Amino acid sequence: MKLSLLFSLCLCCWLATVAQQGISIGGSTVHPSAVLDVSKSAKGVAIPRLTQSARLGISNPAEGLLVYDSSTNRMYQYQDGLWRYLLNNSYWTKSASGNYTYTFDSVGLATSSPDARLQVVGTIRGRAALTAADNVSAGNLLHGNNLVSSGTLAAAGTATINGNITTQGNVNVDNTSPTLQLKSSGTNKAFMQESGDDLRLGTNSGNTTGKTIIRMNGNDVISIDTTGSLKVLTGSGGNINMGRKLMRYFTPAEAPENTLPVIYGMVYNNSTSVWMSVSGTIILISTGVYEVTPQEGRPGARSAILVTPRGASPRVANAYMNGATKFIIEITNPLTGNHVNADFNFMVMDPNNL
């Protein structure tokens, strides 16, 4: 009886000592960081193997509890109040260069049921380039400095690009009144928009100095400013052709079709304040007689000169060529036949003039 009591006491002391130092199985020493150190050259450790129903039936599992689910053939850990399975190496692999690849099924971020290889519910942001060999689709915001896709690039919400978009396919914008908005430093500058059956393009409200400019072969050829002024910028003024009704041709062979004025202007009665569409001079020779000398777009023998006197008093005008480069405008009072000074507008039409 005394011997048994002594043996039990010694066993308890040994277990207490081992518990403080750790337990070693198959080895002589216990690693300082381990409570249980198992060492075996040809065997491993088998943790409890439970069916799925048995695993889910564990009452109040401890955080960090490990079991092997024999129904799903997965290792499970109880974490944050939920059973979570550990991904095995057949799904995630690491290449020699350090890249990780997932080869099992689909990856979902913020979704438990992804319907694509990668589905993200939320915002995707790329600090460098986002490149895809197939399709890229976003249900909300697709954002990147550079977006490159050889397939389809689709955004049901907003696509924001701070860099470049390169596509070997098409860019389709399908929405009610879709808009391609162009910004500079966050400020709206210009846009392209579908409005019903119409196409709108131009500068945004608030961009008071911007123009809509059409370029061909790297050169500005047509500009429209905020006042609605349209300018043809090529050569010495460019050409305009509007349905064969309003035209300005450059070659003499087509010049008979020209119905645009080559010179026009406005003159005040003393000729000191004038405005002409081309450079030149206007001189008051005598009362009611004005000499006009344009430096370009000069009239010729076939020119038609239209003069419209201004003011409330009755006035009539007569215009005729004075040499090869000048023409005279005379303003008279039809009641007296005398020449009088008057404000007037004039226009020179010449189908052969370039």
SSE layout:
Elements: H1 2-21, E1 23-25, E2 36-38, E3 49-50, H2 52-56, E4 66-69, E5 74-79, E6 82-85, E7 92-94, E8 100-102, E9 107-109, E10 118-120, E11 124-132, E12 136-138, E13 141-149, E14 153-155, E15 158-161, E16 165-167, E17 179-184, E18 187-195, E19 198-203, E20 212-216, E21 219-224, E22 230-232, E23 240-242, E24 246-248, E25 263-267, E26 274-276, E27 280-286, E28 289-294, E29 304-309, E30 316-321, E31 327-332, E32 344-349
Parallel strand pairs: 1-2, 3-4, 9-10, 11-13, 12-14, 13-15, 13-16
Antiparallel strand pairs: 4-5, 5-6, 7-8, 17-18, 18-19, 20-21, 21-22, 23-24, 25-26, 25-32, 27-28, 28-31, 29-32, 30-31
Question: Can you summarize this structure?
Answer:
Helices cover 7% and strands 43% of the residues. The chain is mostly beta strands.
Q: pLDDT average, as an integer?
A: 80
Rg is 45 Å
With helices defined by DSSP (H or I, 4 residues minimum), what is the helix count?
Answer: 2
The major β-sheet equals:
4 strands, mixed
